[in-house]
Fold this sequence. Notes:
The protein is mostly helical and 235 residues long. It has a domain at 2-140 and 151-175: CDP-alcohol phosphotransferase transmembrane (TM) domain (Four Helix Bundle (Hemerythrin (Met), subunit A)), CATH 1.20.120.1760. 75% of the residues lie in helices and 3% in strands. The chain has nine helices and two strands; from the N terminus they run αααααβααβαα. It has helices spanning 2-7, 9-29, 33-57, 62-91, 105-119, 132-146, 153-172, 187-211, 215-233, and strands spanning 126-128, 176-178. Helix 3 runs antiparallel to helix 4 and helix 6 packs across helix 9 (215-233). The longest helix has 30 residues, at 62-91.
Amino acid sequence: MANIIVRNIPNSITCCNLISGALATMTAFAGDYTTALTFIIVGAVFDFFDGFSARLLHVSSPIGKELDSLADNITFGLAPSAIVFAYMSEICSPDIHILAYVAFLIAAFSAIRLAKFNLDERQTTSFIGLPTPANALFWGAFIISMKDLLANVSLNVNIILLLIFLSCWMLIAEVPMFALKFKNFSFKQNKVRFLFIISSIILITLFLVAEKSLAGVWLTIVWYIILSLVTNNKK
């Protein structure tokens, strides 16, 4: 009995991730973007600990891997799609309201990204393409921090559409990106990771304190992409 409970601890945590994603989606459709982003972050915490607990307890399983991808696509694919769809539904006039449905490309490309990750043996210590949690955080923070700043509605829609297509491409692009996985804490071997962590904390804190804005969060994701591209080109 105890063995059955232990084996199912990681899957239970994964289900908590999935439930967080479902709640994020529900609150996004209701127009509560801040709560939706909060649930996405909670889901990301569960996503970290399900893998951590599986390795700690030595109970990794094929079903756990599939369940993890399903949960991730709800939390990091469908939920950000719902945030973008709900916001575009607010700003789009009735004659172009159909454009809001383009937001669900984020969920589709996130599913492709996760499927590729499961099969790609190159992504054990780094990533190929933008990780879905980073993409979800970008969209949640971007919509919350920028929704009142773009006064021109037509410009607003065009920018969002462009970013949707760009983020979908980044999810599946053959672009190497570093992962925050530490084999040791040597500065020489982890200088890019240390640089990113320290600079991200500063950036997010500055915007939170000075502007009371989450702009630092989505700018951190942009910085992550730029830093990945720069360091990859130097290899």
